[in-house]
Amino acid sequence: MIQVRDLAIEVTNKCNLNCDFCYANSNTKNEQLSIEKMKRAMDIVNPTGIAFTGGEPLVRHDDIVEMLPYAQKFIGDDFKGIRIETNATLPIDFNAFTLNGSPKGIHFNVSLDGMKELHESQRGIGTYDKVVDFIKEAGDRGYWITAKGTFPDEIILNELDYLHDFARFCVSIGLPRIRIGHVKSSGRGERTDGGDGYRETTAQMFQNIASLNDIVEKEFNMNITDGKPYVVPALCGQCGYNRKDLTLDVNGILRLECQFLNVPLCHYTKYTPELHEFGLALMKKNNMGITNNKAFDMTGRKSVFI
């Protein structure tokens, strides 16, 4: 049986923003998970890591706080922290987001799409200052934070100076890590450029981001505690996804799939007999429902389920 590395829990489809590239296709459903189903999924899967996602999970601020002590039970030697994937624009009671009274173990993945003009063109007027204030306060309080930037392809491909300026700004507000990615081909961000051309595009993006990381690490003498680069590529097809992660979707279904693409396996991942047996074992173990697939097209958007 494969040890599940990470369980991403889609606590709600609701979001206070309505970004036109949202991979989760937020605000299209009214569903939200019950606390009982979240706990049951953790018990079934026994993950070494847990992420609360959405939609915007802080729409359910008090429910997430209630879940933290239960999620803490799964912390082990390999646990990387309880992650909150947030756009960081809603009010938050930081005093409530602790484990045994400490921020240690809580990791905020915060959406910050470049400097103010670009960020607000994508997220909405007035969002940038809220995000920056959130990051500064969370950093001052001792939380682990990662900035997740979604950028147009042309910026990642052709505007390394812009990304360098963005990295400098992130350093100035105390961010320990940046993830730079493109629009994911899911939800409202569905792309039409799959296949070899897409591979070539993402390969060039990856190279540019890796070059940026080399520049930033030398410029600021970065020493990242988890051994990962300061600037991390977050590109479909370049993630090295090892298929040890599960998603509990907002409908209460456990999915063996990429957390970004709404498909059971992305088109860069090989389907293996071990993976097949893992899916079957989970299906027998619980009646929440689990999907996995055996065949899929090269764009990763259509699948044949078993």
Topology overview:
Layout: E1 6-10, H1 35-45, E2 50-53, H2 61-72, E3 82-86, E4 106-111, H3 116-123, H4 127-141, E5 144-150, H5 153-158, H6 160-172, E6 178-181, H7 196-220, E7 231-234, E8 245-248, E9 254-255, H8 273-285, E10 290-291, E11 293-296, E12 303-305
Helix pairs in contact: 1-2, 6-7
Structure notes:
This protein has 306 residues and is an alpha/beta fold. It has helices at residues 35-45, 61-72, 116-123, 127-141, 153-158, 160-172, 196-220, 273-285, and strands spanning 6-10, 50-53, 82-86, 106-111, 144-150, 178-181, 231-234, 245-248, 254-255, 290-291, 293-296, 303-305. Strand 2, helix 2 and strand 3 (82-86) form a beta-alpha-beta unit. Helix 1 (35-45) packs parallel to helix 2 and helix 6 (160-172) packs across helix 7 (196-220). The radius of gyration is 19 Å and the shape is globular. Residues 262-271 and 288-306 have low confidence and may be disordered.
